[in-house]
Predict the structure.
Amino acid sequence: MSDDPYKILGVTRDVSEAALRKAYRKLAKKLHPDLNPGNAQAEAAFKTVATAYDLLNDPAKRAQFDRGEIDASGAERPRQPYYRAQAEREGAHPYGGDAGFGDFDGEDIFAQMFGRAGRADPNRAGADARYRLDLDFLEAFNGGTRTLTLPDGPALDVTIPPGTRTGLTLRLRGKGEPGIGKGPPGDALIAIEVRPHPVFKLEGEDIHVALPLSLRDAVLGGRVSVLMPSGPVSMTVPKWTNAGAVLRLKGKGMVRSGGAPGDAYVTLRLTLPAEPDAELQDFVSRWGSAERPETRQSEDVR
């Protein structure tokens, strides 16, 4: 097998990070020792592929390899000693020594060439894999389990904690790239994006929602049902409640990390019957007679 990591992974030198990861995962699935028990050749090939990916997946190492500063194992390439450097050493002959071929030890050369590679750890942890998961607001609020389908086929079961927010990163231990040798696999890092809800608005840990209220309930008051993200909640509306009033439901907001949940704030919106009601119209006409004082006044709506 070639000692060029690009050729080992079957990619070009301008390969992107995503294409590099895809090529590695394809080979790893084919050659992994767990899928080829007792196949020493496949195991050796897998180690070679993993070493190549480990080098190219590290931007700094990849740049060093492209400049010729390190070899495919990650070891620094030996710098050749020149005769001028030897000649400038105190007491050294510019072209020869006691052995007739310069004043250096063969063991030193081999140590220089292979020492670093020989000390390289063959067992390395796999790289972390990064993904994104979009959630509906109710999924994030209540928590649950989602299946994340990966680009190359496999799927991950992701546990969503209640109160999950946009920007949170979930970590799945051992679900990243395979390790090298006996090294453990990396982790899967899942960035969360929560889609907004058409009804519920989140401000900090508090939920805001509008509730349609009938004229009867506004005047007489009573118990009404409010649909919240966690399910229906019963709430008392006081008598003579004006439209626009805001009632609080304590502890019905989003879960706080390490603390009590936020609250829910319900804004009441007065609604009339969908169909005209002659009896109601007649009553309002008589109730709003000329002798009643005018109650309308302007308000700051900013």
